[in-house]
Write a structure and sequence with these properties.
This protein has 805 residues and is α+β, with helices and mostly antiparallel strands. It folds into six domains: 3-49; 63-261, Penicillin binding protein transpeptidase fold (Orthogonal Bundle); 335-599, DD-peptidase/beta-lactamase superfamily (Beta-lactamase, 3-Layer(aba) Sandwich), CATH 3.40.710.10; 613-644, no CATH class; 652-697, no CATH class; 719-804, Sandwich (Immunoglobulin-like), CATH 2.60.40.10. 34% of the residues lie in helices and 17% in strands. It has a five-stranded antiparallel beta sheet, sandwiched between helices. A hairpin with a 2-residue loop joins β23 and β24 (764-769). α3 (93-103) runs parallel beside α9 (209-217) and α14 crosses α16. It comes from Fibrisoma limi BUZ 3. Residues 317-348 form the PLD phosphodiesterase domain. In the C-terminal section; belongs to the transpeptidase family. In the N-terminal section; belongs to the glycosyltransferase 51 family. The chain crosses the membrane at residues 34-52.
């Protein structure tokens, strides 16, 4: 062979250079097509995902938990399932180990399906011509629980697509959580948490290894493995799986041995039903929240419920059938106990009525707020004298609870003894509009609809309030006048301000000084609203409290507080029936004392301290004003610096008389200087007209000013010192029966120096009398002007209308 031909043969046998480039080109082309195919698949998948989204929203059974996470109350879901939401923190490592070992060992490694398991299952099914094993992952089982379908190959393809969707939108832990919340346990129980609570009576975190293994095997055979019915058979299956756990080294030998020997005592239990009234309230407020975290303390709630139940059973013989209690932590304003009625299951006595939110008459329970406002207005201090005497307030004549009057009393005595006339007089001075505005500021929403119809009677219970509103008001006295919104649910740490401080906004309704003065008064135990039951005197808690009894004895209130808690108690009948024995002191206060003794006996936090704005000053005990000329024995009293009024005491005034004290003189009619040697300067009580009328009616002697000099020609023009007509009432309409006419009484209140008054009807003199004497006349239909003048020439007028019935 020639060299040339050999060279050619060599070239023919040697691989040409161009095929390598072709191969490289083909490889790049394949990679590019693979990338495009992958991109096309992803685009199609994302498009289908957008067109056919997987619905993972599940209607859970709402759970109401306590402050510490304890389940208090459970409700059925909208589709009547006990499907309870288990949080990620409740899925313990033991739960993960058992469920993953049994259902999906490679859960955290596959993309939603296990191709190896699918191929293995397909081969087995083809060789046996029947379905012998499945290849469903936990993700695919979750899809099947969300969207149940028939077991077909088409359904399997849809499950694969849905599984990829789940993996795309949820993390592995969230998928496992969703799976554990949906697995069936027979009947209408779904989810690990529901089975744990309803069969074992405790949350998943407290389950033992044996109990967890039991709950792990049931979802595969919920119809045959029925807890409480087939427990012996369940134990056999449980132990078989425990043995497999031991063989796999999943748990140590001691743990497995203990689990094998543990008896199975599972049975169907009732769902938790504590705090039913608050639970329903929170469920309505948060309809789509699976777990509502209340601020209740389980021990406090259980104690309050039991005390209320037992107490109402004792007073039921008196025809008193219900009570409601609210306990608030003063530092955080969290509601730690909420009892709406004595027995929620008692439909005969209205047990399902929420007494915490029922609108009722407060009786005298609003008086502390009134006195706090009066302190802040500077109108009174604790020892200011107020007159507890019969008084006509423009036609309104209130009476005291015991139908007795005490004459001049201190403000602190009037509040501690819940006297009505001083309270109405203070409300008149402050103004109902100011008082209503303060109530609105303090959160009394029920006042909004009533405001236009409220008058002076509101301070004695003539308005509607709720136990929630009243308890919230009293937290203000424990928090230096700041009234905030009560917290029924727990607040996350990110919302908190300082430890022990309320996380809700607080509005100051009255000053810290006024709050302390009210507290100081309400702490006294020498008062009529201390229960008559001697047993309470031995266990009297150190609290400030106020009672209230509504008109007709329909509502009994007692609200108390210390540094830690404010507790509101209402006792009565939801039907509104009055009971003669019902009162705030003897019916509601004993329950209040029991609650404080059970929840906060002898609190170690000490007592309230006077704020810096309070000071002590000397005052006259006769009036509470700063001592004047005739004040001989001053005493000490609290005052609010810069607020409490500074007024000289005038409980007595100087009067010039003759030597015998039988005639008094004014500066206009003083005798000539040559005759002035017989003039004596004496002091006489400067009594209010209503107080003098009270003294006269009770035959209580008091000094009167001698008659004025009859020779005096001066006309006194001080209109405010003129007689005050208390009957009839200015602007009122009176109806008479023309066939049986009756007489009407005219009466007035006059100053201490008045001896005679003159009555005029339509400017015609009708009769003269002493100031304390009643004058009667027979009215006629039409407009009537009534005038009363005293012997000093001072007068006052009223106009009324007389109509035939």
């Amino acid at each position: 062979m020639s060299k040339q031909s050999g060279s050619a043969f060599a070239k023919f046998r040697r691989p040409p250079a161009w095929p390598a480039a072709v191969y490289s080109h083909l490889a790049r082309l394949l990679r590019r097509r693979f990338v495009w195919a992958l991109l096309a698949f992803l685009l199609i998948f994302l498009g289908l995902d957008r067109l056919f989204p997987l619905r993972t929203a599940v209607p859970y059974a709402p759970l109401i938990t306590a402050h510490d996470g304890t389940t208090l109350h459970a409700f059925l879901s909208r589709d009547d399932k006990w499907r309870m939401y288990a949080e990620l923190t409740e899925i313990t490592p033991v739960v993960r180990k058992t469920i993953l070992f049994k259902e999906d060992k490679y859960f955290y490694y596959h993309p939603g399906f296990n191709p190896v398991a699918m191929i293995r299952a397909a081969v087995r099914n083809l060789l046996t011509s029947r379905r012998t094993s499945g290849a469903s992952t936990i993700t695919m089982q979750t899809v099947r629980l969300l969207e149940p379908r028939e077991r077909t190959y088409g359904s399997k393809l849809i499950e694969l697509f849905r599984a990829l969707q789940l993996e795309l939108h949820l993390s592995k832990d969230e998928i496992l959580q969703l799976y554990l919340n949906l697995i069936p346990y027979g009947s209408n129980i779904e989810g690990l948490k529901a089975a744990s609570l309803l069969y074992f009576g405790k949350p998943p975190a407290l389950l033992s290894l044996a109990e967890l293994t039991t709950l792990t095997i049931i979802p595969n055979r919920p119809s045959s493995l029925r807890l409480g019915q087939n427990n012996a058979f369940i134990v056999q299956e449980r132990n078989r799986w425990l043995a497999r756990f031991r063989s796999a080294g999943l748990f140590d030998e001691i743990a497995v041995t203990d689990a094998l020997n543990e008896p199975l005592t599972a049975r169907r239990r009732a769902a938790p039903q504590q705090a039913p009234h608050l639970a329903r309230r929170l469920r309505l407020a948060y309809p789509d929240t699976p777990i509502i975290r209340s601020a209740l303390r389980p021990a406090a709630q259980a104690t309050a419920e039991q005390l209320v139940y037992n107490y109402v059973n004792r007073v039921r013989a008196l025809n008193i059938h219900n009570a409601a209690v609210l306990v608030v932590d003063n530092r955080t304003l969290e509601v730690v106990a909420y009892v709406g009625s004595a027995d929620f299951a008692n439909t005969f006595d209205g047990g399902q009525v929420d007494g915490v939110r029922a609108v009722r008459s407060p009786g005298s329970a609003l008086k502390p707020l009134l006195y706090a406002l009066a302190f802040d207005e500077g109108l009174i201090t604790p020892k200011t004298k107020l007159n507890d005497v019969p008084t006509n307030f423009g036609g309104y004549e209130p009476d005291n609870y015991d139908r007795r009057f005490n004459g001049p009393v201190t403000a602190e005595f009037a509040l501690a003894n819940s006297l009505n006339i001083p309270a109405v007089a203070l409300l008149k001075d402050i103004g109902t509009s100011t008082f209503i505005s303060t109530m609105r500021k303090a959160g009394f929403s029920t006042i909004q609809k009533q405001a236009k119809d409220l008058g002076l009677s509101m301070i004695l219970g003539g308005c509607g309030v709720t136990l929630e509103e009243m308890t919230r008001l009293y937290t203000g006295f424990a928090n230096e006048g700041g009234v905030g919104t009560l917290r029924f649910t727990s607040v996350s740490p990110s919302y908190a301000t300082k430890p022990g401080q309320p996380a809700t906004p607080v509005k100051r309704s009255f000053s810290p000084e006024a709050a302390y003065l009210v507290t100081h008064t309400l702490t006294q135990i020498t008062r009529p609203d201390l229960p008559n039951n001697f047993d309470n005197s031995y266990h009297l808690p150190r609290i400030a409290w106020k009672t209230g009894t509504s008109y007709g004895r329909r509502d009994a209130w007692s609200i108390g507080y210390n540094r830690n808690f404010t507790i509101g108690v209402w006792v009565g009948n939801f039907s509104g029936a009055g009971v003669p024995e019902l009162s705030g002191a003897n019916t509601a206060t004993p329950l209040l004392f029991q609650l404080f003794n059970a929840l906060d006996y002898n609190s170690a936090r000490g007592w309230f301290k006077p704020p810096n704005g309070l000071a002590m000053r000397r005052i006259c005990p006769e009036t509470g004003d700063t001592p004047g000329e005739f004040c001989a024995n001053p005493v000490a009293d609290y005052c609010i610096m810069g607020v409490s009024r500074f007024r000289r005491c005038q409980h007595r005034r100087a009067i010039l008389t003759n030597a015998a004290g039988t005639v008094s003189y004014c500066t206009y009619c003083l005798p000539a200087q040559t005759e002035a040697s017989g003039i004596v300067r004496r002091s006489y009580p400067n009594l209010a007209p209503d107080l003098m009328a009270y003294y006269r009616s009770r035959h209580i002697p008091f000094e009167t000013v001698p008659p004025h000099n009859p020779a005096c020609e001066r006309v006194f023009g001080d209109k405010q010192a003129g007689p005050q007509i208390v009957s009839l009432n200015d602007g009122s309409e009176y109806f008479i029966n023309a066939r049986q006419p009756v007489e009407m009484e005219l009466s007035c209140l006059a100053a201490n120096d008045v001896q005679t008054v003159y009555w005029y009807l339509n400017d015609k003199l009708y009769q003269k009398s002493s100031p304390s004497e009643g004058v009667f006349f027979r009215p006629r239909p039409g407009m009537l002007k009534i005038s009363c003048a005293d012997d000093k020439g001072r007068h006052s007028d009223v106009r009324v209308t007389i109509r035939n019935e």
